[in-house]
Write a structure and sequence with these properties.
This protein is mostly helical and about 80 residues long. The chain contains five helices and no strands. It is globular.
Length: about 80
């Protein structure tokens, strides 16, 4: 859906994926969690959904294991402020 520029539908897919994650998903499924949250944050930026972007960004910034894993969400947050 993202490739077809339907970011609201893509966000819905990523949000559904996030909803299926278990409580300790950042520990047990780190890569999947990071991909889902990053992709959802990308869609939130394009859609102008700042509230969702903040919620998703907070999760990534809290649980990311390295600075490199935080870069995309930091970029998205700065882009949303512009």
């Amino acid at each position: 859906a993202m490739e077809m520029s339907d970011f609201s539908a893509a966000y819905s897919f990523f949000d559904n994926g996030i909803s299926f994650l278990k409580k300790k998903h950042w520990e047990e499924h780190y890569d999947l969690s990071l991909q889902l949250f990053e992709s959802a944050s990308n869609c939130a930026v394009v859609s102008g959904d700042i509230t969702s972007l903040k919620l998703l960004s907070d999760q990534i910034l809290t649980f990311a294991k390295s600075f490199e894993d935080k870069l995309n969400v930091l970029y998205n947050t700065v882009s949303a402020l512009a």
